[in-house]
Amino acid sequence: MLEDWLRMLWREVERLELPVVVDRIPGVSARFLESAFGKVVPSEVAGWFGVCNGVMHRSGQTQNDAALIPGYEPLSVEDSISIKVEYSGEAILLSDFYPLLGSGGGDFYAASYDQGTGLSYVVSVVVGEESRVAYRSISQMAEIFVQCYRDGIFFLDGEGVLQANDEAWIQREMAAVGELPL
Question: In this predicted structure, what is the pLDDT of residue 89?
Fold first, then answer.
């Protein structure tokens, strides 16, 4: 299911001819991820990084050029590991977490897991704000991103900059997690 949603998500950014399509770095194997993270990663994390391992950065590139969704670019495995080290004490991030999307200002979305309890979700970490659960899974996150593109919540403004109706986006995230027990 995740692979289908990721394929649809990338089709949406292709439809809008976003620069990230050209700058996308091909995905990596589960074996590569195991070596990089030092352990077997959850299947959804392997699926995410199997489609895209970040974006190429080039001279003159803007945050918008690298964005997969408004304000956030897909992270490389290397960047994900760097963020893991920096945020290892964040309480909402479970014992095992994998940053997936990041902003130029340090905000990120991370898949978070506790292998002991089986609990998992995707967390939104915004610098200076309280971190929160945003999605129940990576699949749900990708599905909602697709819906946000299709429903015009993610859109190009008159200058070709990827924007979001932030209020509608947050409402979708809140509805996605509902009464998630934490």
Answer: 73
